[in-house]
TrEMBL record:
Entry protein name: Dynein beta chain, ciliary
Domain Dynein heavy chain C-terminal: residue ranges: 451-745
Cellular component annotations (GO), alphabetically ordered: dynein complex
Example GO BP: microtubule-based movement
Domain annotation Dynein heavy chain AAA lid: ranges: 308-444
One term of GO molecular function: minus-end-directed microtubule motor activity
Length: 747
């Protein structure tokens, strides 16, 4: 409990998992080899699931498990009795259910391994249930420690350190407690210093006075005065003894964004009681919080009271949506933006001024001001800007005042009422928390939960001691494990492409041929560095070379199944672990080898296999422009989604190219109707059929009933943007914009 008050919500389960695993290892209740397998969880690549209720990657996990003695025939059992397994997997809380047949008798850790393959999105809950079973319920209960309780432990030598979160002000707790104890600004025994330029002297004077007379000192935002922190540490240490017994220090700082950005001295952190304060989560809490910025008086200040109140409530909903949508990761926003209460307050002031100055509600002006300036001023990504504007077009329209507008499915805009009435309306009418409130599909939550649990396992894995992972009874040292990986990669990597030989094969350098050249060169650049660094590490492991910092970093990455940094700098964006990444690299190499033997455009091109997919898409436009003698800047791409998959094509099309390897996130493609449709539950990344991409002149482009769908290389979206494909839709495009629909080249 005392440790967890200083941890963010997202880190509490990671901490208790690590603690539980170490206790169980020490008591020899679990085997380190089983734990190593659970944390690494190698997936068998390129397998196809034989059952409809498991994805290919889940089946890859089942195949890896079945190769271990304790799980022999698990794959056969699932194939032979799919009904029992389907019932377990489709359950809302599978971690609380019993496994079929003899599998229910497995140890709790082995059951976790099976659950990780079957339902990765439920692993946070499964780990919490595991901790509860092994250590007791109190280790997973979310309990907050009252500030007054923490204060009892503080002393002149033990300051209190607040770790800040956006939208939360811990100073209020300190002031409220101070009032009860007679420590206030008015009484002259409470000093509040907000640090920044030139405030260090003020802070030092306040500490000198407080230590002598028993006052309280609040030092806010100490992360802004990096150079002064060593002096602060000395001063805290100096006054930790011999000062007035009532002297107390409270500090606050924002958490560092990266490990390299940690600047708070260790001495300050070690001597302090650390407390995190986080804003409430969920739509209901955020909407209440947004409305709390106003009062009955504010609601009545405008001459157009009914319009003002309706739009103010809708603005509060918009504010809550944009802030809370962050939790869905890149499907929510491509980048994280610091939307804050100031944006809401200034928007309401603008609303008041515009309603007073106009006889009619200027909807378009308001949408522009809120979406492009007040909130839009934070936004730097074009797709995020489109999302922000789409929300406002849905929430800010005449129906809000004149008719019936639903702010979200099952949540109509409230009738005209008073301040207390609006709060009561939220409590009574707000549907339960779900992605629907944000315009997203429930799959968005599954994706978000899966990512969270993957992060938990990766972090706990990186914290494991490196002494050994046992396999088959024999102990394998980390060096031996790395040596196996080095040998395997070097053995499987083919020779570099002979660029001279390849170039001499070609008579005419068409745009497609140039793309192939560039891809071969990029591949040589990557595989050359892989071979060089691995051979160097191999010599280091044999003792023939001194291990350098770079070699040690490479060794650590290989052991942790991560793609080494020196390789990613030369590679394409990817979120895969090393083993999956290397299997994918070999497929890319094979594809390139086939293409570079005769330079005939493949019947269907694997778009995901390129370092630079944009260059191939541009080559389609260049080829057409040259053939028809058209200017390149007047060309654009037309995407016709076929009804077939790559196996059904034997030759390239007459115009453009067939491409495959695309996945859709946030929706699915209906092959029969040829339009975007709502996702099926638990189908997170349905595969797209082959797409025929051809170049046309911009004047022939038909944008009716089209959703402009962004294409990204990976799930991180943002900087991995490739192109925009126009896809047919019966629904209005805003629906898919709010649902965060995009095409991905790799999942």
């Amino acid at each position: 409990m005392y440790t967890s008050r200083g941890l963010f919500e997202r880190d509490k389960l990671i901490f208790s998992s690590q603690m539980t695993f170490q206790i169980l290892l020490m008591n020899e209740e679990i085997m380190s080899s089983d734990l190593d397998f659970l944390l690494r969880f190698p997936l068998q690549p390129h397998v196809v699931s034989p059952v409809d209720f498991l994805s290919n990657s889940s089946w890859g996990g089942i195949c890896s498990l079945s190769a271990k003695d304790e799980f022999r025939n698990l794959d056969r059992d699932i194939e032979m009795s799919p009904k029992r397994w389907k019932k377990l997997i489709k359950s809302d809380c599978p971690e609380r259910e019993k496994f079929p047949q003899e599998w229910k008798n497995k140890t709790p850790l082995q059951r976790l391994c099976m659950m990780r393959a079957l339902r990765p999105d439920r692993m946070n809950y499964a780990i919490a249930a595991f901790i509860e079973e092994k250590l007791g319920a109190k280790y997973v209960e979310a309990r907050t420690v009252e500030f007054s309780k923490s204060f009892e432990e503080a002393s002149p030598s033990t300051p209190i350190f607040f770790i800040l979160s956006p939208g939360v002000n811990p100073l209020k707790d300190v002031e409220d407690l101070g009032k009860k104890l007679g420590v206030t600004l008015g009484n002259g025994n409470f000093h509040n210093v907000s640090l920044g330029q030139g405030q260090e002297v003020v802070a030092e004077q306040a500490m000198d006075t407080a230590a002598g007379q028993g006052h309280w000192v609040v030092l806010q935002n100490i992360h802004l005065v990096k150079k002064w922190l060593p002096a602060l540490e000395k001063k805290l240490e100096h006054y930790s003894q011999g000062s007035h017994p009532d002297y107390r220090v409270f500090m606050s700082a924002e958490p560092a964004a990266t490990p390299a950005a940690h600047i708070i001295p260790q001495g300050i952190l070690e001597s302090s009681i650390k407390i995190t304060n986080e804003p409430p989560t969920g739509m209901q809490a955020n909407l209440h919080k947004a409305l709390d910025n106003f009062n009955q008086e504010a609601l009545e200040m405008c001459s157009k009271e009914a319009e003002f109140k309706a739009i103010l409530f809708s603005l509060c909903y918009f504010h809550a949506v944009v802030a809370e949508r962050r939790k869905f990761g890149p499907q929510g926003w491509n980048k994280i933006y610091p939307f804050n209460v100031g944006d809401l307050n200034i928007s309401v002031s603008v609303l008041y001024n515009y309603l007073e100055a106009n006889s009619k509600v200027p909807w378009e002006d308001l949408r522009y001001l809120f979406g492009e300036i007040m909130y839009g001023g934070h936004i730097t990504d074009d797709w995020d800007r489109r999302l922000c504007i789409s929300y406002l077009e849905e929430l800010m329209q005449p129906e809000l005042v004149d008719g019936e507008l639903t702010l979200a499915p099952g949540f109509p805009a409230p009738p005209n009422t008073d301040y207390i009435g609006y709060h009561a309306y939220i409590d009574e009418m707000m549907p339960p928390e779900s992605p629907y409130l944000y315009g997203l599909h429930p799959n968005a939550e599954i994706g978000f939960l899966t990512t969270t649990s993957e992060n938990l396992f990766r972090t706990v894995f990186e914290m494991q001691p490196r002494d050994a992972g046992a396999s088959g009874g024999a102990t394998v040292t980390p060096e031996e494990k790395v040596k196996q990986i080095v040998d395997e990669i070097l053995e499987k990597l083919p020779d570099d492409f002979n660029m001279l030989e390849i170039m001499n094969k070609v008579e005419e350098r068409t745009p497609y041929v140039i793309v192939a050249f560039q891809e071969c060169e990029r591949m040589n650049y990557l595989t050359g560095e892989m071979k060089r660094s691995l051979k160097e590490l191999d010599l280091g492991l044999k003792g023939e070379l001194t291990i350098t910092g770079d070699m040690e970093e490479l060794q650590n990455a290989l052991f942790l199944d991560q793609v080494p940094r020196i390789w990613t700098q030369r590679a394409y964006p990817s979120l895969q672990g090393l083993s999956a990444w290397f299997a994918d690299l070999l497929l890319r190499l094979r594809e390139l080898e086939t293409w570079s033997t005769d330079f005939v455009l493949p019947s269907s091109v694997w778009l995901s296999g390129f370092f630079n997919p944009q260059s191939f898409l541009t080559a389609i436009m260049q080829s057409t422009a040259r053939k028809n003698e058209l200017p390149l800047d007047k060309m654009c791409l037309q995407c016709d989604v076929t009804k077939k998959h790559k196996e059904d094509f034997s030759s390239a099309p007459r115009e453009g190219a067939y491409v495959h390897g695309l996945f859709m996130e946030g929706a699915r493609w209906d092959i029969q109707q040829g339009i975007i449709m709502e996702s099926r539950l638990k189908e997170l990344f349905p595969t797209m059929p082959v797409v025929n991409i051809r170049a046309i002149t911009q004047d022939k482009q038909d944008m009716r009933n089209m959703y402009e769908c962004p294409v990204y290389k990976t799930r991180t979206r943002g900087p991995t943007y490739v192109w925009t494909f126009n896809l047919k839709s019966k629904d209005k495009p805003a629906k898919w914009t709010l649902a965060g629909v995009a095409l991905l080249l790799q999942v």
